[in-house]
Design brief:
By secondary structure, the chain is α+β, with helices and mostly antiparallel strands. Helices cover 33% and strands 24% of the residues. It has a six-stranded antiparallel β-barrel. It has a four-stranded parallel beta sheet with strand order 2-1-7-8, with helices on both faces. Helix 5 runs parallel beside helix 18, helix 9 packs across helix 12 and helix 9 crosses helix 19.
Length: 757
C-alpha cells in the first residue's frame, strides 16, 4: 500500500517524512495552487458572487507532479495547516488533483511531533466546508474592495494606489493617533521630592502627596507653589504618621497567543512582527536537532487566539516545575486561562511541543533568532504554569509642616514564576517603588534635602507594531493570521512609514484616509470591520451563509462607491509633496520626492517645464560614511591597530598604516561546528571568484578543509561527521568505506520557501 501526504512547505514535508514509514511519500504544495486571477476581478457579482479560480502561474509542473503521485497512491492525505487558510488550500488541492471533496482525507495536527502526526493519520476527516467558505468569503470581500476602490483612488487621487478592507481601517488608526499628537497641548506640573534619613542612618526618598489634614492627593501646577512647599519643609524633621505593611500576590501572564507573542517579541527581542512569524513558522515546521532528536517541530501552531492548554502538556509542565524548582513553585491546582469570547478554540496556546527539548539543550542546532524566540516561548509557558510570586509591601506617610509625603516599596518574599519570566509592557512603568529601610510608626526622620522639578504632560505615543497589534486585537480587527500582513501592506503601499519602532502616517496615508472616511465610512469604521470578522467566524461555525454575508456587504458598499464616483473631483484632493534639500541645478528649485516604477526619486517641482530628476539617496546614520571599525587585534607585523575592510572576497582586517604596512587577515565566520581532525572551530572562507569553502580555524597547523558544509550531525552508520553536499539537498558521509547519504533540505532554503508560502 502506498500513501501520499501533501503539506504546504518543504520544511514541514522534511519533518513529517522522518516520522512516517517507507509506504508514505510527503510532498509540499508550496502554499496555494489555485487562486483568483490577477488580471481581472475574478468574481461574478451578478451570479451570486461566483469566484473564478485558476491554477497559479508557475505551479503547473508542481500540479502535474502532485496529480501523478496522487494517481499512484492508495490514499491521499491533505495535511495543510489547521486553520481557515489551510482548509482552503486542501480544498483547492482536492479540486486541482481531481479528488472528490467528500472523499478527501483531511488531517491536522497542532504540533509537528511523531505522536501527533501518527495520531492524525489514524483519524482523517472530510474537508470542513464551513471553514473553506469562511476563507472564501474573506477572499471575495477583499478582492471586491481592492478591485472596486483602487480605480476610484486612481481617478481621484493618483495612479498606482490601492485600497484594502482591513488595511484601510488600520491606516486610519495610525492617522488618528497622529492627529491626537498634533492637537495635544502640554500641561505644566511640578513634583517635590524629599530625601529623608532614618534614626539608624538609612536614606529613602518620599514624594509630595498633599495636605496632611485631609490626606487628599494634590497636584502642583506651578513653580511658585512648589517652591513654597520646599521652603516650608527644608531642614525640618519629618514624622512617620502611618506605616502600612502587607503581602501582595502577583500572578503570571498566560501562555502566548499570536498577538501577545508578536508584542513581547517586539519589546524583548526587537523583532518586527514579520520576523517573529517567520521564525515561529520555522520552529513549528521542524528544526534538525541532529543527534539530539533528528528533525522535530519545537512549538505548537503559532496562529491562535486560544489560551487552552492540553491536559498532557499541563502534566508535563507540572513534572518539570516540581523537579527543577520544587513543589512550592507549582500552584495547588493547575492554572486554567480563559480565552476571549470570540477566540477560535481549535488550537492550543503557543507552547513548546516537548519539555524534554529545553532551549539550552538544542541551542547549538538553532539560529540565533530561532533560539531567542524559542526561549521566549519556553519561558512564558513554564512561568504561566507556576505559582504566584509573593511580595512584601510597605507604604509610609510622612508629615512635615502640614504637608504629607509618601514613600512605597516592596521586596520579593517568594519569587514563584518570577524565577523564570516577567512580562514587559509598552507603557512607561509608574511603579517606582523600591525596597525601603525599616521604618517605625511616629519615627522622626531628618530631612536631608528637598527638591522641586518642573514637568509637562506628554502626548500619546505613536503606535509601534506591538501596540498596534494590541489595539487591533482589542477592537476585534483582523485575526491571528492577518496582523502581520496588515502592517506589511500599509507600509509597502506608502500609507504608513517607520521611525525606529514607531509607525506614522505619510501625507498620502492621511489624504487617502480623509477621503475614505468621508465617502466610505463603513470600510474604515472599527466596529464595522470587527463585525465583519464576527460574521466570518459565524460562517466558520455554520451559523451564517457565505452568500448572505456577501450580499449584505455589497449592497451598501456599491451605493457608497457610485455616490463617491459622482461627487468627488480630483481637483478637490491635493496630496502634500515631500520636499528634499536637493537644489535643482537647472532651475534652482528645491526638488521633491516622487514615486516611480523602481521606487522613490527626486524630481523638479516645475515639471514639465523642467524635467530634471536625480536618484534619491537617503542620508541617515546607516548610510553615511562611517569610520572603519577597529578590530580586536593588533597587526602582526608592526603592532598597529587593525580595521575592518570589505573587498572582493568578503570582509577582512587590514593594518591602519596601509599602504606602508600591507598586512591583512581575512575575517571568518564560525559555524558552531568542531573540526573532526583537531576539535577547533570550523570557519567559512572565500576562495577565488568568491567561492565559499570551509576550513579549520587553526590552519595551517591543521589542514582540514571542505567544499561541502560540515554539520553537527553524525552518520548513523559509522558515527563520523555528515556534510551537506554543495548545491544539493543531500547529507553525505565522507568516511572511507562508508557510503551513507540522505536527502535533506537546508534550513536557509526552508526559510526562503516559507516566505513564498
Amino acid at each position: 500500500m502506498s500513501n501520499l501526504v501533501i503539506v504546504e512547505s518543504p520544511a514541514k514535508a522534511n519533518t513529517i517524512k522522518g516520522y512516517l514509514g517507507h509506504n508514505y511519500k510527503v510532498i509540499a504544495s508550496k502554499g496555494h495552487v489555485r487562486d483568483l486571477p490577477k488580471s481581472t476581478i475574478g468574481i461574478d457579482i451578478e451570479n451570486d458572487f461566483e469566484p473564478h479560480y485558476i491554477n497559479i502561474r508557475g505551479k503547473g509542473d508542481l500540479i502535474k507532479e502532485l496529480k501523478k503521485e496522487a494517481s499512484k497512491a492508495d490514499k491521499v492525505f491533505l495535511a495543510t495547516d489547521p486553520d481557515r487558510e489551510g482548509e482552503a488550500i486542501s480544498w483547492h488541492l482536492a479540486i486541482a488533483l481531481g479528488i472528490p471533496v467528500e472523499k478527501a482525507k483531511r488531517i491536522t495536527f497542532n504540533e509537528i511531533t511523531k505522536t501527533a502526526v501518527k495520531e492524525a493519520i489514524k483519524a482523517p476527516r472530510s474537508i470542513d466546508m464551513d471553514l473553506v467558505n469562511s476563507q472564501q468569503t474573506r477572499r471575495i470581500l477583499d478582492r471586491i474592495v481592492g478591485y472596486k476602490l483602487s480605480p476610484f483612488l486612481w481617478k481621484k487621487v493618483r495612479s498606482g494606489l490601492s485600497a484594502g478592507r482591513v488595511q484601510s481601517a488600520a491606516t486610519k488608526i495610525i492617522v488618528e493617533r497622529e492627529d491626537e499628537i498634533r492637537k495635544f497641548v502640554p500641561v505644566e506640573y511640578w513634583t517635590v521630592d524629599a530625601v529623608l534619613e532614618t534614626e539608624k542612618g538609612k536614606e529613602l526618598t518620599a514624594h509630595f502627596y498633599g495636605n496632611a489634614a485631609d490626606k487628599t492627593k494634590t497636584e502642583i501646577s506651578d513653580g511658585k507653589t512648589a517652591e513654597k512647599i520646599c521652603a516650608a519643609v527644608k531642614g525640618k524633621a519629618f514624622t512617620a504618621v502611618e506605616v502600612k505593611k502587607g503581602t501582595k500576590l502577583k500572578s503570571p501572564a498566560p501562555p502566548f497567543i499570536t498577538s501577545t507573542m508578536q508584542q513581547e517579541a517586539s519589546r524583548k527581542l526587537n523583532f518586527q512582527s514579520q520576523r517573529t512569524m517567520r521564525v515561529a513558522q520555522e520552529l513549528y515546521e521542524g528544526v534538525n536537532l541532529g543527534s539530539d532528536g533528528g528533525v522535530q517541530g519545537l512549538i505548537t501552531y503559532m496562529r491562535t487566539d486560544s489560551l487552552r492548554i492540553a491536559a498532557e502538556a499541563q502534566k508535563a509542565a507540572e513534572e518539570f516545575i516540581v523537579e527543577k524548582y520544587g513543589e512550592r513553585f507549582y500552584p495547588k491546582t493547575p492554572r486554567v486561562y480563559k480565552s476571549k469570547a470570540n477566540a477560535q478554540d481549535a488550537h492550543e496556546a503557543i507552547r513548546p511541543a516537548s519539555l524534554k527539548l529545553d532551549p539550552a539543550k538544542v541551542r547549538r542546532h538553532l539560529s540565533p533568532d530561532q533560539y531567542k524566540l524559542y526561549k521566549l516561548i519556553w519561558d512564558r509557558f513554564i512561568a504561566s504554569q507556576m505559582a504566584n510570586a509573593e511580595l512584601d509591601t510597605v507604604s509610609a506617610d510622612f508629615e512635615c509642616e502640614g504637608y504629607l509625603f509618601r514613600a512605597s516599596g516592596y521586596s520579593v518574599k517568594f519569587n514563584g514564576y518570577m524565577a523564570v519570566y516577567e512580562e514587559s509592557t509598552d507603557e512607561k512603568s509608574e511603579d517606582n517603588a523600591k525596597k525601603l529601610p525599616p521604618i517605625q510608626q511616629n519615627e522622626k526622620l531628618n530631612g536631608k534635602s528637598v527638591d522641586a522639578a518642573q514637568h509637562f504632560t506628554e502626548p500619546p505615543a505613536r503606535y509601534t507594531e506591538a501596540s498596534l497589534i494590541k489595539f487591533l486585537e482589542e477592537k476585534g480587527i483582523g485575526r491571528p493570521s492577518t496582523y502581520t500582513p496588515i502592517i506589511t501592506i500599509i507600509i509597502s503601499r506608502g500609507y504608513v512609514a517607520r521611525d525606529g519602532k514607531s509607525l506614522y502616517p505619510t501625507p498620502l496615508g492621511e489624504v487617502t484616509t480623509k477621503l475614505m472616511t468621508e465617502h466610505f465610512p463603513d470600510i474604515v469604521d472599527y466596529k464595522f470591520t470587527a463585525d465583519m470578522e464576527d460574521k466570518l467566524d459565524s460562517i466558520e461555525k455554520g451559523n451564517e451563509e457565505m452568500l448572505g454575508v456577501l450580499k449584505g456587504f455589497y449592497g451598501g458598499f456599491n451605493k457608497e462607491l457610485e455616490t463617491a464616483m459622482e461627487s468627488v473631483s480630483k481637483d478637490d484632493i491635493e496630496v502634500p509633496v515631500e520636499e528634499t534639500d536637493i537644489v535643482c541645478e537647472k532651475c534652482g528649485s528645491k526638488m521633491i520626492v516622487k514615486n516611480g516604477r523602481f521606487g522613490k526619486f527626486a524630481a523638479c517641482p516645475n515639471y514639465p517645464t523642467c524635467k530634471n530628476t536625480k536618484p534619491l539617496v537617503k542620508k541617515d546614520a546607516e548610510t553615511e560614511k562611517k569610520k572603519p571599525e577597529i578590530a580586536p587585534m593588533k597587526c602582526e607585523l608592526c603592532g598597529s591597530d587593525m580595521v575592518l575592510r570589505t573587498g572582493r572576497y568578503g570582509s577582512f582586517y587590514a593594518c591602519v598604516k596601509y599602504p606602508q604596512c600591507k598586512f591583512t587577515k581575512q575575517k571568518v565566520k564560525e559555524l558552531g561546528v568542531k573540526c573532526p581532525d583537531c576539535g577547533a572551530e570550523i570557519v567559512t572562507k572565500y576562495g577565488k571568484n568568491k567561492t565559499v569553502f570551509y576550513s579549520c580555524s587553526k590552519y595551517p597547523e591543521c589542514r582540514f578543509s571542505s567544499w561541502d558544509l560540515p554539520t553537527n550531525e553524525k552518520c548513523p552508520d559509522c558515527g563520523k561527521m555528515l556534510f551537506r553536499k554543495k548545491g544539493k539537498d543531500q547529507l553525505v558521509c565522507k568516511a572511507e568505506g562508508c557510503g551513507y547519504k540522505r536527502d535533506d533540505i537546508p534550513a536557509e532554503q526552508s526559510s526562503a520557501e516559507n516566505e513564498e508560502k
